[in-house]
Specification:
The complex is a heterodimer of chains A (87) and B (483).
Chain A lengths: L2 H15 L14 H4 L4 H15 L14 H12 L7
Chain B lengths: L12 E6 L3 H12 L4 E4 L11 E4 L3 E4 L8 H9 L2 H5 L1 E4 L2 E4 L4 E4 L3 H10 L5 H13 L10 H8 L4 H15 L7 H14 L1 E4 L2 H15 L3 E3 L4 E6 L5 E6 L2 E10 L3 H9 L6 H8 L6 E9 L11 E4 L18 E6 L11 E8 L2 H4 L3 H20 L5 H4 E7 L1 H8 L13 H11 L3 E3 L9 H23 L12
Parallel strand pairs in B: 1-2, 1-12, 2-9, 6-14, 12-18
Antiparallel strand pairs in B: 3-4, 5-8, 6-7, 10-11, 11-12, 13-16, 13-17, 14-15, 15-16
Classes of the chains: A mainly alpha (87), B alpha/beta (483).
Bound molecules: flavin-adenine dinucleotide.
Chain lengths: 87, 483
């Protein structure tokens, strides 16, 4: 996967979890929580979706890496880059 | 021969869930959606655990734990159940207090509580705001040494009236007392204050019916009338499955929605755990139980709207202890108008008090029946003040006690709200003791109530899913990450 594909994959997950949010306005550098109505259960959902869609385990100590879009891509790209994107 | 309630089950499962409370059901649904093979075993004939109801002749349907939950339940139902279920959740706006210290109606949210505390109780706005900011910021990782009593004394010293306003509803909602850690109060209170109190339109039976439909759609096998006798663990301290009705059903993981103490001491057996763990388990205090009086009005009878939830008491001041007395005058009335179950056109009223198991457990049959009779009479006397002439309208009357709750849930002491705070650590530690063994359900005060139990079910489903992934045969086409 490319960086852009990783970013899109994260966006897809968030839009499934929070369908009412307008994700087009996302600012990659800002905390997701400050922009959208996301709580700790939503972050748990993101972790579960990453496991389901990409067989990727995010250990609890790394949850903080998912704080913004930019930090998520930074963290996930090296772990997903060898993944083929299956549609 | 008696009916084989296990008929048609698969030969093995990824997860067997013992118990169908909201934690068990929500975990089951999540795990099924993640692709696992799930079996729910419930000893009762209905699903739902304490989220339950019963029907009586004359068209009466009576709800046990549908008094109110926080707005967060809408999101939880949308994400882990269906949009349709979430759409049936509606707000209750008429919450009432009546006691010797104050008497008024409120819609039970932050704005209205701020107004009341300012105008009625003369508290300065800054103090109120700071109090709300403090409870809002509370979380699981906070310092546990501060009790709710200390929290109240810090913000509203000596104001027993304010303490009562803030505490009484939460004591009914999660059984916590002034001496429990302040976070067990703050987290739940802040959840309610966010947007008020909500209920499920259609009643508990409709909710559970919709949940069952969704579980079946997602491929979950469900068997009622099945009391799990034992969780089977091998020498390597790994779960093998469960024993039920003389049969062993193999599973990679077992998620117990039975009470945490039952799970450790009865279903698994203390001998399977490390001695230090068993020592910690012994320190876990159970929460209290409840008594309820169910009042169904005769078909055709009506009453005015006297509020949805009424917190009433004749006690001079609030005290966590006096609330538990069998003769307490402190109770909640929940009023169910025809809107609750559109189309049914019936009214019912449920009175709830907190109660101790020991006050009901050691009576002769006759004493027990008499004591229930007294409870019903005292409740009707109290209700008369708000609904004059109610006795003439009653079509069905019945009471439940901690003994009733114990019988239907198997929970020790008939607990309504699991354990005190320390129980949560035991629940979370279980998988480290025995591979593949998990617990979800009312525990630690904060994980109780409809919302707490359902969310805890998801939190634990995540752990189960992680475990199942870790023991799964490696699948080359999915192999990823060489970092
Ligand atoms: C009187 C009362 C009023 C309440 N009011 C409210 C309210 O207004 N709002 C709110 O949010 N919460 C309320 N609650 C609390 C709420 O109902 C509970 O916290 C929540 O429903 C508990 O869910 P749970 O998942 O922990 O499991 P439970 O509901 O406790 O269910 C556990 C299930 O496991 C089953 N089980 C146990 N052992 C076995 C076994 N060995 N084999 C098979 N099955 C087994 C039991 O039969 C039961 O069905 C109330 C509780 C009570 C008692």
């Amino acid at each position: 996967m490319t960086r852009e594909q990783v970013r899109q994959a994260i966006l897809n997950i968030i839009s499934d979890i929070a369908p009412d949010e307008d994700l087009a306005s996302i600012k990659d550098e800002e905390k997701l929580r400050d922009q959208f109505d996301l709580d700790s259960m939503d972050f748990l959902d993101i972790v579960m979706e990453l496991r389901k869609r990409f067989n990727l385990e995010v250990p609890e100590k790394d949850y903080q890496e998912l704080v913004s879009m930019a930090s998520s891509v930074e963290y996930l790209f090296p772990r997903l880059k060898d993944n083929e994107l299956v549609s | 021969m008696s009916k084989d309630w296990l008929k048609g089950i698969k030969s093995a499962y990824d997860t067997i869930i013992i118990g169908s409370g909201l934690a068990g059901l929500t975990a089951a649904n999540k795990l099924a959606k993640l692709g696992h093979k799930v079996l729910i075993l419930e000893h009762h004939y209905n699903l739902g655990g304490l989220a339950t109801w019963f029907k009586r002749k004359g068209g009466h349907i009576l709800d046990i734990s549908l008094h109110g939950f926080p707005t967060g339940m809408i999101k939880t139902c949308r994400k882990y159940w269906t949009q349709e279920i979430a759409d049936s959740i509606v707000r209750l706006k008429n919450i009432r207090f009546d006691n010797p210290q104050f008497s008024f109606w409120t819609n039970f949210d932050k704005n209205d509580f701020t107004r009341l505390m300012k105008d009625r109780f003369g508290i300065v706005k800054e103090t109120i705001d700071e109090f709300f900011a403090t409870v809002r910021a509370m979380n699981f990782y906070d310092d546990l040494s501060m009790t709710t009593r200390e929290l109240f004394e810090k913000f509203f010293p000596g104001r027993t009236d304010v303490h009562r306003l803030l505490m009484e509803p939460i004591t009914y909602a999660n059984g916590s007392t002034l001496d429990d850690p302040a976070i067990t109060y703050g987290i739940v209170f802040a959840n309610f204050m966010d947007k008020g109190v909500y209920t499920f339109k259609g009643g508990t039976n409709e909710l559970i019916k919709k949940m069952k439909k969704e579980l079946l759609k997602n491929g979950v096998d469900i068997r009622t009338h099945c009391m799990v006798e034992r969780i089977v663990v091998d020498e390597d301290k790994t779960v093998q499955g469960v024993e039920v009705q003389g049969r062993m059903i193999p599973a990679k993981t077992v998620l117990s929605n039975s009470n945490i103490l039952n799970t450790v001491q009865k279903l698994v057996g203390e001998e399977q755990f490390a001695p230090e763990f068993v020592k910690e388990v012994k320190k876990v205090r159970l929460n209290d139980s409840s008594c309820q009086v169910y009042i169904g009005l005769k078909r055709g009878e009506t009453i005015d709207n006297v509020g949805d939830l009424l917190f009433t008491s004749q006690e001079k001041e609030f005290s966590s202890e006096s609330l538990l007395e069998p003769e307490t005058t402190s109770r909640t009335f929940s009023f169910y108008y025809p809107e609750t179950r559109p189309g049914l056109n019936m009214y019912s009223i449920v009175a709830s008090t907190n109660a101790r198991f020991k006050d009901w457990a050691h009576l002769t049959k006759q004493e027990y029946e008499n004591k229930k009779e007294v409870l019903i009479e005292r409740t009707l006397d109290a209700l008369e003040k708000y609904v004059p002439g109610v006795r003439k309208k009653v079509g069905h009357l019945e009471a439940s006690t901690p003994m009733t709750f114990k019988r239907y849930t198997t929970h020790p002491g008939g607990v309504s709200f699991g354990t005190k705070f320390e129980g949560l650590a035991i629940s979370k530690d279980l998988p480290r003791q025995i591979g593949g063994l998990f617990h979800a359900g009312s525990v630690g005060i904060i994980m109780s109530g409809w919302l707490g139990a359902a969310n805890y079910g998801v939190i634990v489903a995540n752990e189960v899913d992680k475990f199942l992934h870790s023991v799964r045969e490696p699948q080359p086409e999915l192999e990823t990450v060489s970092v």
